[in-house]
Structure to design on (271 residues):
């Protein structure tokens, strides 16, 4: 049920690919809560996905942009301000890609050109988005920026590979830029550490099905769904969370603070 907690707010959402994308769910939820949005993704991702279907549903314009290109991001934010007649109120950064993961390169034998690409796409892109917004004054006072991350930034999950390094960098950027943007415009910058989720990107990690079940068995509440994550993002865009910034917020059913569960111990005892 909608409470219209984003009524009158304007936002920009990166990364919606198809119905399984968390960004797709966030776009739908934001509009349902009264926001008007602009959608963006890399041109190649737009050709692979269904973003135009989402745009029609949300009455939103799609502006292609390469999130690793400062020029593209500057043009994107300028266009976004034209569409919404001024600064926007929120941004979702839902961007992640690892050529090493796609090519099944182990962490102990990385291709370093791929590695740099992983960092550029999955982490530095947040800095580039924030820097462009900061310099263009593209976010309203008390605006909100959320980046999606994963607990592999802080714990070792072998098959998550160089994406773990990218997520650690992403979280550091959110803290550092959150300080500067908070001083300048009261803009808050946070990351949300989501449960393993059946998205196109997430399910590309080797052994994801086992990974998913393990987290679900440990978490007291089970894995958080993409829809639930979208609702959490909406609260972070709203005025109810105006004093939260520079935080990495766990949205994982309690997985991050559970050592072991009775269900898992029972399963291990039967091996």
């Amino acid at each position: 049920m909608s409470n219209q907690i984003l009524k009158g707010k304007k936002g920009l959402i990166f990364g919606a690919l198809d119905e399984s994308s968390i960004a797709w769910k966030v776009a739908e939820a934001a509009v349902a809560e009264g926001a008007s949005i602009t959608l963006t993704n890399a041109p190649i991702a737009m050709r692979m996905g269904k973003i135009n279907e989402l745009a029609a549903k949300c009455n939103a314009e799609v502006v292609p942009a390469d999130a690793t290109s400062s020029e593209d991001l500057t043009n994107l934010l300028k266009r976004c301000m034209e569409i919404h007649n001024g600064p926007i109120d929120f941004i979702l950064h839902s961007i992640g890609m690892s050529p090493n993961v796609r090519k099944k390169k182990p962490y102990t034998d990385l291709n370093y050109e791929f590695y740099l690409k992983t960092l550029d796409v999955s982490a530095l892109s947040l800095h580039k988005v924030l820097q462009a917004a900061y310099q263009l004054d593209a976010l309203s006072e008390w605006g909100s920026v959320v980046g999606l991350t994963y607990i592999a930034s802080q714990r070792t999950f072998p098959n998550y590979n160089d994406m773990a390094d990218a997520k650690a960098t992403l979280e550091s950027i959110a803290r550092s830029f959150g300080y500067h943007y908070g001083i300048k415009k009261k803009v808050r910058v946070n990351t949300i550490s989501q449960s393993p989720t059946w998205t196109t990107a997430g399910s590309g990690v080797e052994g994801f099905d086992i990974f998913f079940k393990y987290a679900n068995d440990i978490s007291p509440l089970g894995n958080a769904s993409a829809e639930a994550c979208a609702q959490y993002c909406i609260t972070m865009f709203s005025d109810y969370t105006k004093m939260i910034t520079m935080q990495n917020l766990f949205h994982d059913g309690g997985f991050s603070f559970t050592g072991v569960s009775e269900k898992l111990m029972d399963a291990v005892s039967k091996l």
Q: What stands out?
A: The chain has a mean pLDDT of 94. The beta strands are 10-14, 36-40, 61-62, 88-93, 139-149, 188-194, 248-251. The CA atoms of residues 117 and 197 lie 23 Å apart.
